[in-house]
Amino acid sequence: MIKTLSMAVWDTNSRRGLSLKERLEMFSEREADFYVGNWDSDIYHDVFFMSFDVCDKLTLQTARSVRLAGETSYLLLVSDRRCDITELLRPAIRPSGVMFYPVNNADLRDMLYEIAAEMERLSKDDDDDVFVLKSEGVSYRIPIRDILFFEANNKKVQLHTAGQQIAYYDSLESLADALPSQFIRCHRGFLVNTSKIEEVRGAEMELRLTGEYRIPFSRSYKDAVKQAISSR
After folding, report:
1. Residues 74 and 175 in one domain
2. pLDDT digit string (tens) for 196-219?
């Protein structure tokens, strides 16, 4: 039995036969327990299905809106193989998966079970392993292990992971006191996760992080950086 899921469908695909929403509703009646509705940016859904056969400006705008409406939601693209979806594979959209027509019922079932299992796994994370923040009215729960660094930006700080950047009101000073000891100040404008440091370049006064990020460090923090690296 699939965990109860709230799902939404945005469908502009012109294929004949059962729509994706109809197929999901039939599947729900037989095997699962979830709500399937039309997409509404004011309602949170666990899963968004975007079904289309043309990746046009409207499709791109809708994908962005879907992601903004639910940062932790699963966004699934369903398209024809001949459709170029390259524009949708970007950090600001971050699709969770791609399916191609004709959609196989078994593949659809497997996808939903995988999502339910992943949601269950993530729900077991201890609060100590998650960083919680709020930006522009949206709450985020970011796994500590995914955070690369924080960057000062006027009166805000910007959190960086490999797939997203979130700006919100805070200071590096308060973050340094609140975060685990693996996070250190390396520069007046940066707070870095030392577990993500791959290389220290003393000549350039630069840290190389996972994902080829380059972060400066200043002389006043040089000893703190060395100590953090040696104690890992």
Report:
1. no
2. 999 888 888 899 998 889 999 998
The CATH number for 198's domain is 2.40.50.1020
Domain count for the chain, please give it.
2
Do 217 and 207 touch, CB atoms closer than 8 A?
yes
Last residue of a domain, one of 95, 123, 151: 123
Q: What is the pTM of this model?
A: 0.52
SS3 78: strand
* Contact call for residues 167 and 157 (beta carbons, < 8 A): yes
Whether the upstream peptide bond of residue 95 has omega within 30° of 0, thus cis, is: no
Q: Each residue of 65-90: pLDDT tens digit? A: 888 777 778 999 999 899 999 999 98
Q: Are residues 119 and 10 in the same domain?
A: yes
